[in-house]
Amino acid sequence: MTHRDPGRARPAPTLEMVAALAGVSRATVSRVVNDSPSVDPQRARAVRDAIAELNYVPNRAARSLASRRTQAVTLVLPESTSKVFTDPFFASVIEGIAGYLAETEYTLTMILSSESTPDKTRRYLLGGNVDGALVVSHHSGDDSWARVSGSLPVVFAGRPLVGEAGSHYVEVENESGAATATDLLLSRGRRNIATIAGPQDMSAGIDRLAGWRRALARAGLDSSRVEFGDFSPASGAAAMRRLLARGAPIDGLFVASAQMAAGAYSVLESHSLRIPGDVAVVGFDDDEFAAALTPALTTVHHPVTRLGARMAETLVALIEGRPVERVTRLGTSLILRGSA
Amino acid sequence: MTHRDPGRARPAPTLEMVAALAGVSRATVSRVVNDSPSVDPQRARAVRDAIAELNYVPNRAARSLASRRTQAVTLVLPESTSKVFTDPFFASVIEGIAGYLAETEYTLTMILSSESTPDKTRRYLLGGNVDGALVVSHHSGDDSWARVSGSLPVVFAGRPLVGEAGSHYVEVENESGAATATDLLLSRGRRNIATIAGPQDMSAGIDRLAGWRRALARAGLDSSRVEFGDFSPASGAAAMRRLLARGAPIDGLFVASAQMAAGAYSVLESHSLRIPGDVAVVGFDDDEFAAALTPALTTVHHPVTRLGARMAETLVALIEGRPVERVTRLGTSLILRGSA
DNA sequence: CAGGCCGCAGAGAGCGCTCTCACGGGGTGG
DNA sequence: CCACCCCGTGAGAGCGCTCTCTGCGGCCTG
Question: How many CB atoms lie within 10 A of CB B222?
Answer without folding.
Answer: 13
